[in-house]
Automatic annotation (TrEMBL):
GO terms for biological process: nucleotide-excision repair; regulation of transcription by RNA polymerase II; transcription initiation at RNA polymerase II promoter. A zinc finger (C4-type) spans 319-336. Component of the general transcription and DNA repair factor IIH (TFIIH) core complex, which is involved in general and transcription-coupled nucleotide excision repair (NER) of damaged DNA and, when complexed to TFIIK, in RNA transcription by RNA polymerase II. In NER, TFIIH acts by opening DNA around the lesion to allow the excision of the damaged oligonucleotide and its replacement by a new DNA fragment. In transcription, TFIIH has an essential role in transcription initiation. InterPro entries: C1-like_sf, Ssl1-like, TFIIH_C1-like_dom, TFIIH_SSL1/p44, VWF_A, vWFA_dom_sf, Znf_C2H2_type, Znf_RING/FYVE/PHD. Residues 89-269 form the VWFA domain. This is General transcription and DNA repair factor IIH. Residues 416-438 form the C2H2-type domain. Belongs to the GTF2H2 family. The lineage of its organism: Eukaryota, Fungi, Dikarya, Ascomycota, Pezizomycotina. GO terms for molecular function: RNA polymerase II general transcription initiation factor activity; zinc ion binding. Residues 1-20 have a biased composition (Acidic residues).
Length: 459
């Protein structure tokens, strides 16, 4: 991290208080032209035009394949078990400047951002039940507080809904936002991650001082910054993200459309990988133990005051250390600061550490070998396997070759195989199992039936 500081050479338009994209072009704003190939969003912008008709001139197979390939591309994550920070402290910073009034994302950038952010908050706590989130905004050159750091999604959603009626105004200030985020993350414990996610619609940042000092301070405080741009790439954003992520350039992206924007926000709900160089804290903190309480729900005959809000409630959870009553879990005990969670919350974080392995595409040959006729998960029939004689005669061959030409990434036989249990699944089950249940139905049913290892054609 220190060396990335040293390599700063003061180039570019970012030395003034107001940084503006002078060029205006999307392509030109390379963070560093010499070390940069094509940005991810540039690749997706062009790929949609590369539609090719099938052999018989129909476009249906290709479109179906494209859709499947799209779903699949989203799915194919790196499934290597890595050390991840499952206790996260994330600050979401929304741009509330006048640039958010633009209507290039429908209905407006502002309203779409609020809708997506609400979805993001739900998903974030679904995926990271023992993490904390806070939301800030950037408006009229200032950073404003929308909701405080907390583990309760409803607080954030209520605050976001109120934001709908406000009008975006003025310029954003990245420096003010980062400084405020630093202050808010300063007291967070060292075992958790410190992340700042900025959604930036404007092409400028109106700062009171030198933002490079702030970047250095962020690195010192081991804050990782991620930025989603809504307009075009900006040099200073690329620099902030690169420097605070140890030189990794993948943390700054520009959303090309609504779908891409949503996807990028949702990607952030996966806990970040811990880098080996990450924290000094980690060195003397390796496998540090964290104290947690697992209270059970109690029901009371007479209402009593809760320690978190001071409301009269019947029942709740008693802190396992000091017996203070809290309404909801997960929470930090307001009296003794113990982290209180349910064991199911911990279990939900488990799949990030040991993800379900990706399923592989099944070739016609493999499908013939297995003879799979329907999806093991939902019993949807698969397309018929062309048999080898017909293929030679050319009747089924065309169908098969048309299928083979389906978009890159989609399986030619529309089947996906779990390599552990050997069952075949359709694309929808593939998506559902990897994104929602995080388990393989084939492996799970084998687990309950010892000795039934070869039941491939069952179903
Ligand atoms: Zn309460
Ligand atoms: Zn307590
Ligand atoms: Zn299925
Ligand atoms: Zn399986």
């Amino acid at each position: 991290m220190a060396d990335s500081d040293a390599e700063y050479d003061g180039e570019g338009p970012d030395e003034d208080d107001v940084m503006e994209v002078s060029d205006g072009g999307r392509r030109a704003m390379a963070s560093r032209p010499k070390e940069r190939a094509q940005a991810r969003w540039e690749a997706t912008a062009s790929s949609n035009w590369e539609l090719q008709e099938a052999a018989d001139g129909s476009i249906e197979g290709i479109l179906g394949g494209l859709e499947e390939a799209g779903k699949r591309k989203r799915l194919l994550k790196d499934t290597t078990p890595l050390q991840r920070g499952i206790i996260r402290h994330t600050l979401l910073v929304l741009d509330l400047s006048s640039a958010m009034l633009e209507k290039d994302l429908r209905p407006t950038r502002h309203l779409l951002t609020i809708n997506y952010t609400i979805m993001f908050v739900r998903e974030y706590f679904e995926q990271n039940p023992i993490s904390q989130l806070g939301i800030f905004g950037m408006r009229e050159g200032l950073a404003i507080r929308i909701s405080d750091m907390s583990g309760n999604p409803n607080d954030h959603i209520a605050a976001l809904k109120q934001l709908r009626s406000t009008e975006p105004k003025g310029n954003p200030s990245l420096q003010n936002a980062l400084d405020m985020a630093r202050a808010a993350l300063y007291h967070t414990p060292s075992h958790g991650t410190r992340e700042v996610v900025i959604v930036l619609g404007a092409l400028l940042s109106s700062d009171p001082g030198d933002i490079h000092d702030t970047i250095k301070a962020c690195i010192r405080d081991r804050i990782r910054v991620r930025i989603i741009g809504l307009a075009a790439q900006m040099h200073i954003c690329a620099e902030i993200c690169r420097k605070t992520n140890g030189g990794d350039e993948n943390y700054y992206n520009v959303a090309v459309d609504e779908v891409d924007y949503r996807q990028q926000l949702m990607d952030i709900t996966t806990p970040p990988v811990l880098r080996s160089t990450d924290t000094e804290a980690q060195k003397h903190n390796q496998a540090a133990l964290l104290m947690m309480g697992f209270p059970s729900r109690i029901v009371e005959e007479k209402p009593t005051l809760c320690a978190c809000h001071g409301n009269l409630t019947r029942g709740g959870y008693l802190c396992s250390r000091c017996k203070a009553k809290v309404c909801n879990l997960p929470a930090t005990c307001p009296t003794c600061d113990l982290t209180l969670i349910l064991s199911t919350h911990l279990a939900r974080s488990y799949h990030h550490l040991f993800p379900l392995r990706n399923w592989v595409e099944v070739s016609w040959t493999r499908a013939r070998q297995e003879g799979s006729i329907q999806c093991f998960g939902c019993l949807t029939p698969f397309p018929r396997i062309p048999n080898p004689q017909e293929a030679v005669n050319g009747t089924e061959h065309d169908v098969a070759s048309a299928r083979t030409k389906r978009a890159e990434g989609a399986s030619e036989s529309s089947r996906y195989e779990c390599e552990t249990c050997g069952q075949h699944f359709c694309i929808d089950c593939d998506v559902f199992c990897h994104e929602v249940v995080h388990n393989c139905p084939g492996c799970q049913s084998n687990a309950h039936l010892p000795g039934n290892q070869n039941g491939h054609d069952a179903g």
